[in-house]
């Protein structure tokens, strides 16, 4: 690209500094000296401060108390749920079930559901190709809609 980079003198606290700016496009008219200067880049001292949300109002102790109360309630609820699950696990183990056996059963159910989903997609596509309803295709293969 045939463009020359322009440089603008900016006076600051420590004297004059040259700041490189966007190159001029070929064939464009250049502004008179002093116009269209780029704002000097200054490092802000507020870059490392935390984000202050406009939705939160600072200094409201009532909301923090409510938050603490609701958090405590949630913790107690979760502890109760954990105790219920531990009791259910103990009952299943007492009935002779093992965790590995249950995991294997769950994996088999997932595989069954995946195979069933593929079958339903195929029946739906077959119905579309034939121009009939899925109900008609289910009936042709001796299947109930709940299957």
TrEMBL record:
Question: Where do Polar residues bias regions lie?
Answer: 13-23
- The record's region (Disordered) falls at 1-67
Instruction: Could you list this entry's UniProt keywords, alphabetically sorted.
Output: Coiled coil, DNA damage, DNA repair
- Give TM regions: none
User: Which domain of life, per UniProt?
Assistant: Eukaryota
Q: What start-end ranges are recorded for coiled-coil regions in this protein?
A: 68-95
Q: What job does this protein perform?
A: Component of the swi5-sfr1 complex, a complex required for double-strand break repair via homologous recombination.
Family assignment from sequence similarity: Belongs to the SWI5/SAE3 family.
Provide the protein name: DNA repair protein SWI5 homolog
Q: Which lineage ranks, top first, belong to the organism behind this chain?
A: Eukaryota, Metazoa, Chordata, Craniata, Vertebrata
């Amino acid at each position: 690209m045939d463009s020359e980079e322009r440089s603008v003198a900016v006076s600051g606290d420590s004297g004059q500094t040259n700041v490189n700016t966007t190159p001029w496009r070929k064939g464009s008219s250049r502004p008179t000296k002093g116009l269209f200067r780029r704002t000097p880049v200054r490092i802000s001292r507020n870059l490392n401060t935390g984000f202050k949300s406009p939705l939160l109002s600072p200094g409201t102790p009532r909301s923090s108390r409510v938050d603490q109360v609701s958090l405590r309630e949630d913790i107690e609820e979760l502890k109760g749920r954990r105790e219920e699950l531990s009791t259910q696990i103990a009952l299943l183990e007492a009935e002779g079930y093992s965790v590995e056996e249950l995991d294997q059963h769950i994996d088999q159910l997932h595989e069954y559901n995946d195979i069933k989903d593929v079958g339903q997609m195929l029946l739906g596509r077959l119905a579309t190709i034939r121009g009939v309803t899925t109900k008609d295709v289910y009936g042709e293969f001796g299947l109930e809609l709940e299957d």
